[in-house]
Every structure is written in structure tokens, then in C-alpha cells.
């Protein structure tokens, strides 16, 4: 069994789901009281949020890259960044470590292609939906993303930071997300990327006829495969 290092806390709510999902899957695979060997660096999310608001991605990358280095130094044999948005600075992290970096877009694209789809709706923070790093990453992997208009993006973003990251689940917000998905389906979306690790806390596959690609769930599965050496 390999030791996984998780860069977490962005938010704490989603990091908890990673930890639980990974350990449950490892236990199911190995039985008994087996659990995953995990090292977690849980950063102060407010510090990262302030860097995001100021557009200081370089500094946020330095903070996370240093934590990744410390995780490797502590024995992590691979690093997972438990957030979509901060994959904007994934190169800064991977350049600072000598162990594998488990990139979230790899497992998401593989899952979409396995279903024979190529055009999907993308929901996430406004950074994820509007910046090129995520959309270009999908295009490079053969996936065409469809994103909401700017005003819808702002409300999706607000719900993530003001509600989901704080553990608040509002029925009105769920309805807003599902209505947005219907509009994107009308534009040709064949599936939906839940491109923020908190969105899966709000909407579930049973809420829509389109296939959901829950990035936190898929990333957790990728982590399990790494830990078990598969």
C-alpha cells in the first residue's frame, strides 16, 4: 500500500468527503479494519481565498507547493490536490515534488470518454468556468465544455463560497443549479461535470437525467487506485 499526501482544506467540507470515500473504498478492497495510509496538509482556506480575490495565483501556488514538498518529505509517495480551482497552479506543485501528482482532469476526462461523450456542461467556481486552465485542459483531453453565462456563473460561484464551503445546503440553490443544467442541456450538453469538489454535496445523480461526473468522487477513485498500486 502506498502513502498518499492530500493538499486539503479548500474547503474542509470537501476534504472530509475525500477522506471518507478513499478509506471506505480501501477497506472494501482489503477487508478487515484496513484503511488508507494518508497524510493531509489542511491549509487555511481564507488565506487561499484572499489570494484568489487579488489574482495572486503565484503566491497561492507557492503556499501549496511548499505544503506538497513537506508531505513528500513526511513520506507521501504521491500528491493529490483536493480542489478543482487550485489545479490552476498544478504545475507549480508538480515542479516542486519528485513523486507523482494525481491530476483531477485526467480521471474526469477518462470517465467522460468511457461513456462515449465529448460535449459536457461545466459547473464550478467562476475561476474554473471562465479561466482557460480548466477548459483548455479538457479540450486537450478531447472534451468540449459548455459553461453558463456570466451572471449565472456569479451565482454558482456565490453559492459555492457562501453556502457549500460552509456546510450550508439550501433548496433554492439546488433548484438554481438544476435549472442551469437544463439550460445547458438545451445547448447540447450530454453530461455535467461537477467541477467543484463541493457541488456533489448539493446535487446528486438522481436529480438529473444527464450523467453527472462528480470530480471529488472520481478523484477519490483515482487516489484509491494509486494507494492500492493498481
TrEMBL record:
The keyword DNA repair does not apply. Pfam families: Asp_Glu_race. The keyword Cytoplasm does not apply. InterPro entries: Asp/Glu/hydantoin_racemase, Asp/Glu_race, Asp/Glu_racemase_AS_2, Asp_race. Keywords: Isomerase. GO terms for molecular function: amino-acid racemase activity. PANTHER family: ASPARTATE-GLUTAMATE RACEMASE FAMILY (PTHR21198:SF7), GLUTAMATE RACEMASE (PTHR21198). Belongs to the aspartate/glutamate racemases family. This is Aspartate/glutamate racemase family protein. It comes from Mannheimia pernigra.
Amino acid at each position: 500500500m502506498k502513502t498518499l499526501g492530500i493538499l486539503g482544506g479548500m474547503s474542509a467540507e470537501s476534504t472530509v468527503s475525500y477522506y471518507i470515500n478513499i478509506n471506505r473504498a480501501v477497506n472494501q478492497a482489503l477487508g478487515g479494519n484496513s484503511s488508507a495510509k494518508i497524510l493531509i496538509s489542511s491549509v487555511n482556506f481564507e488565506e487561499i481565498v484572499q489570494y484568489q480575490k487579488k489574482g495572486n495565483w503565484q503566491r497561492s501556488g507557492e503556499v501549496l507547493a511548499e505544503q506538497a514538498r513537506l508531505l513528500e518529505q513526511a513520506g507521501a509517495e504521491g500528491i493529490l490536490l483536493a480542489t478543482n480551482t487550485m489545479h490552476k497552479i498544478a504545475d507549480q506543485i508538480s515542479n516542486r515534488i519528485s513523486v507523482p501528482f494525481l491530476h483531477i482532469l485526467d480521471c474526469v476526462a477518462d470517465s467522460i470518454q468511457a461513456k462515449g461523450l465529448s460535449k459536457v456542461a461545466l459547473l464550478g467556481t467562476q475561476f474554473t468556468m471562465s479561466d482557460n486552465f480548466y477548459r483548455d485542459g479538457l479540450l486537450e483531453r478531447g472534451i468540449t465544455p459548455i459553461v453558463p453565462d456570466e451572471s449565472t456563473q456569479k451565482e454558482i460561484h456565490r453559492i459555492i463560497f457562501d453556502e457549500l464551503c460552509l456546510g450550508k445546503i439550501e433548496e433554492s440553490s439546488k433548484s438554481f443549479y438544476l435549472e442551469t443544467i437544463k439550460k445547458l442541456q438545451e445547448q447540447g450538453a450530454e453530461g455535467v461535470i461537477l467541477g467543484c469538489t463541493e457541488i456533489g454535496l448539493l446535487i446528486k445523480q438522481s436529480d438529473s437525467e444527464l450523467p453527472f461526473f462528480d470530480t471529488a468522487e472520481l478523484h477519490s477513485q483515482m487516489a484509491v487506485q494509486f494507494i492500492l498500486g493498481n
